[in-house]
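Below is a filled-in request sheet from our internal design queue. Each sheet records the structural input a requester submitted and the sequence that came back. We keep these sheets so that new team members can see what a complete request looks like end to end.

REQUESTER: design group, bay 2
PRIORITY: normal
MODE: inverse folding
CHAIN LENGTH: 207
BACKBONE (tokenized):
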């Protein structure tokens, strides 16, 4: 009987230890987010599925919005005038080929210059800032040039008079490495093309 009295408290103690003294779960410490990486305007990681800005009224796709490409031969031998439209350069937002409303006046000035003389043609040079890969910047620069070409077409300029080229990040106007410089380098430059008076009769081409 004494043995039973000793066993009962012992069994009770073991049972309590097994059921009543469970360890409380330890709270999980949430990791704080790491430092945010600096933005990249033209990043190779955004090549697939880049989202353009909402202002797409004058935005072109890589195909030029369905506008046929101008014939390269029709531009042979023409004389480049880089100063005539230098004040009408248009600037772009970060990673965008959308022509902002603030740039519409410059685009209209380019259209007006072309409408005043049917012999003139135009070269649009698309440019990007220094960030991102060479391949992506070339693509974005071309989209920017094509956006301006499409915008000019909507303003009445014959697309056959307009050619485009992309320099990517190779021709910055500001060599700085901050947003002030980058904002100037995200641009389209317009080069006015004059017919060559020395070209053979019946064409613009040279030798």
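RETURNED SEQUENCE:
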């Amino acid at each position: 009987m004494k043995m039973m009295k000793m066993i009962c408290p012992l069994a009770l103690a073991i049972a309590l230890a097994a059921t009543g003294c469970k360890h409380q779960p330890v709270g999980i410490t949430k990791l704080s987010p790491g430092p945010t990486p600096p933005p990249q305007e033209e990043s190779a990681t955004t090549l697939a599925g880049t989202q353009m800005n909402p202002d797409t009224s004058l935005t072109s796709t890589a195909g030029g919005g369905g506008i046929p490409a101008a014939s390269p031969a029709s531009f042979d031998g023409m004389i480049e005038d880089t100063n005539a439209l230098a004040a009408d350069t248009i600037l772009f937002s970060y990673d965008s080929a959308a022509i902002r409303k603030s740039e519409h006046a410059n685009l209209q000035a380019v259209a007006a210059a072309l409408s005043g003389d049917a012999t003139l043609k135009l070269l649009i040079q698309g440019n990007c800032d220094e960030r991102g890969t060479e391949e992506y910047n070339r693509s974005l620069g071309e989209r920017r040039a094509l956006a301006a070409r499409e915008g000019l077409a909507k303003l009445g300029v014959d697309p056959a008079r307009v050619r485009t080229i992309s320099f990517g990040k190779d021709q910055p106007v500001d060599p700085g490495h901050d947003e002030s410089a980058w904002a100037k380098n995200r641009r389209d430059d317009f080069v006015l093309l004059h017919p060559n008076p020395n070209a053979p009769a019946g064409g613009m081409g040279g030798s």
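SHEET NOTES:
- Strands lie at 79-81, 90-91, 121-127, 162-168, 187-194.
- The domain at 77-194 is CATH 3.30.1330.60 (60s Ribosomal Protein L30; Chain: A;).
FILED BY: M.R.
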